[in-house]
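hi support,

uploading two proteins for the ticket. first:
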Amino acid sequence: MRLVLLGPPGAGKGTQAIRIAQWLQIPHVSTGDLLREHVERGSRLGVRARAYMDRGEYVPDDVVVRMVMDRLEEPDAQKGFILDGFPRTVPQAQALEDALADAGRPLEAVLKFTIDDDMAIKRLSNRWLCPCCKRTYNMEFMRPQDGSSCDDDGCQLTRRSDDDEITVRRRLDVYRLETEPLELFYWERGLLREVDAQARLDLVTERTKEALSDIAS
């Protein structure tokens, strides 16, 4: 299955992406992680990306799409993939659509996780992350066993500097401004499927599986 995930900050799409990936046995491709990996190892694309990043500019869409397509050519992605964090705009979506069409691997569905602003703020203001395995915790809804380190690998948990209420509200406004046209782009193609993420983790996973039940294999 070939999927793109959409959802505002705090919707839990990263956590659900991990669960979907395990369920369908396909890779979860976080484009943010992919970009950092290329930059850190100094790949040809990473060198190009870093030149823009060092100038405080956005990495061009064609560079990110090429990174994504290179990743999707790897053996573990032949059965499908989950894209998380890209595309964010209609031009990016069009570039991705064209590249996937050229590869004969069009998207099968786009999941939109919905949540209201109050819940997003409540989740993000209590969010802690494992820098090693990227697992997410919430000090109100899903605490780690010892309160400060990851249950899976013992790494000390950290917080994002922008997980405060004022910044979160700004991020939500930016998300809506950028993403509403993107949602229309995928709705017009019959790909958009909504998942109510205003619930506990396991229930959202059940809703996600139900949203994909007609095409899951």
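and the second one:
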Amino acid sequence: MLPGLAERIDAALPQTQCTRCGYADCRAYAEAVAEGSAAINRCPPGGAEGVARLAALTGREPAPLDAQCGAEAALRIAHIDETGCIGCTLCLRACPVDAIAGARRRMHTVVADWCTGCALCVAPCPTDCISLLPPASTATGWAAWSAEQADAARARHARRAARLARAQALREQRLRALTPTPAVDPALLAAAIERARRRQAAR
């Protein structure tokens, strides 16, 4: 793998973090493409232009988008019907770029300018109050998205990942503090010390 290739591939991806490529996020897909374990035609949000970009970076032949990953389509933004929202926060946890605002038992809403159209918030909603709005434009792929939007989405995704990692570390720290240290049997400790003394004396 060429030095920095994964970074250049990641920079050529739209950063929707939609997982349609089969990887956890755009960075994971970029790394798989860079090491040769993933095809370059698995990113529907990037469209045909995205495939061409990856082909130029990797030296591979362009190919039609993999239909199993989805089709190139116009950008559709998520919308929450606030009359049906129960504030369960499942959509907040699902959104990879923190584009949903709200709190537990409070009405949620989508920050439209931040939404990447990944649709990951739709399935977890228990009241089916989240839908994807009809596209505002017929443009698809990179014609419907910009490098600035991709950079902003990447930054939000990174901040979210860092926040979740901190929260996980804090939970583990609290769990360790709550876990009692096993008491040492005095007899076993004395026997261990005696064995150590005997080994020392035998030297």
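thanks. also noticed: The mean pLDDT is 93.
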